[in-house]
Amino acid sequence: MPTLLANFSPRLSAPLLTRACAMLAVIIISLPTAASAESFAIDGSAGNRLMATSIAKFDSPWAMSFLTDEKLLVTTKPGKLWLVSTDGSKRSVSGVPRVAVGGQGGLGDVVPHPDFAENQLIYLSYIERDEKSSNRGAVVVRARLDMSASPRLINLQRVWTQIPKRRRGGHFSHHLAFGPKGSDQQGKLFITSGDRQEQKPAQRWDMALGKIIRLNDDGSVPENNPFQNRGELARSFWTLGHRNLLGISFDQNGRLWSHEMGPKHGDELNLIKPGQNYGWPVVSNGDNYSGAEIPDHDTRPEFAPPKAYWVPSIAPSGLVIYSGDHFDQWKGQAFIGGLVSRALIRVSINGEDAREAERFRWGKRIREVEQGPRGALWVLEDRAGGRLLKLDR
């Protein structure tokens, strides 16, 4: 503190000088250090501890995906795509399509092609508005990512359009996952498509709402999808009977998992199997916001029940099935971001049984969670000023 010390006169009496030095010491001790400002501990409900390091901040971040050990892409709801380094530096990516922002809609998910190192292709979901009707719906495009000093998207191609568009501003879902290499789903693109807050479309064959979609990487429809005799649109469906799916991930055994927000409560974690109907809006372990009861899953055995559900709601967003060695005791377990629950939630998975095992809380809404290349967990906090955090031992 040279500027403070320079103001002290050498003619000060010894008692005054001693008192001034004591006050200065208090000021110095009370100032936060760089480490305390950037890192903090998070204690879990089961006694585990994570160390969080703040990497970068964003305006309403929504999703992220790693491209390399040092680079990842982060989307923000208002429509910006960022190329981010693990040291915290970030560059805006140009060439992003015009995004309709409002309600739950905006720029959505981003994932690299499984062969990104060779073809530099990424897939991006977002909400577009129909100029004539003002109806909105989700779109998935792919583009080549130029990672030069001024990163940009090149040669955008539409892969999928959510049909039909609707005026309502919620339950778009539009999360993406590629089947892992070496599995029978290798190279297949899975897209979550929400019910757009209309419920009944989740059971209709002529609407791609309330469904999980399965496509080839170019947007064409695989011939072995389960619903080949329900109409042209239904040929793209993998499963139906969903509400608002904001997390989708494969485990190390090649099984697909997804979670979805229930109505007033009854959020679900589902093991996704081709051709199954998950029951919305006919059954749910939650009730409607009006208070009207909905029959539980066990009353209708023809519908696939969730492997875990939550009452009260956790408002799940983001999902990863951990496969790394860094937290080897958690291999094969799920991590779910919680919005209303303001927690990172660890779910133990044993075969097809799943149960909540632990919550890590630090008072923030968690929008997204991913596994980093070296096995650390990475999360995005929701809303303005949301941080990208690296969670380590």
Give a structural overview.
With 393 residues, this protein is mainly beta. The protein has a single domain, classed as Neuraminidase. Helix content is 8%, strand content 42%. It has four helices and 25 strands. The chain has helices at 2-6, 14-30, 34-38, 116-119, and strands at residues 39-43, 49-59, 61-66, 71-76, 81-85, 90-93, 107-112, 121-129, 136-146, 152-161, 173-178, 188-193, 211-216, 237-240, 244-250, 256-261, 267-272, 308-310, 316-321, 334-338, 343-350, 353-361, 366-371, 377-381, 384-392. A five-stranded antiparallel β-sheet has the order 1-2-25-24-23. The longest helix is centred in the first third of the chain and has 17 residues, at 14-30. The two termini are 35 Å apart. The relative contact order is 0.12.
In short:
With 393 residues, the protein is mainly beta. It is built from 4 helices and 25 strands.
List keywords for this structure.
five-stranded antiparallel β-sheet; 4 helices; 42% strand; four-stranded antiparallel β-sheet; Neuraminidase; disordered N terminus
Determine the mean pLDDT. Answer: 92
Strand content: 35-45%
Strands in their spatial order, largest beta sheet:
1-2-25-24-23
Report low-confidence residues grouped into runs of 5 or more. 1-18, 20-37
Termini distance?
35 Å
- How many structural domains can be distinguished in the coordinates? 1
Q: Give the structural class.
A: mainly beta
Shape assignment: globular
Q: In CATH terms, what is the architecture?
A: 6 Propeller
Order of helices and strands: HHHEEEEEEEHEEEEEEEEEEEEEEEEEE
Major pleated sheet:
5 strands, antiparallel
CATH class: Mainly Beta
The amount of helix comes to under 10%
Whole-angstrom Rg:
24 Å
Oligomer: single chain
Name of the CATH homologous superfamily: TolB, C-terminal domain
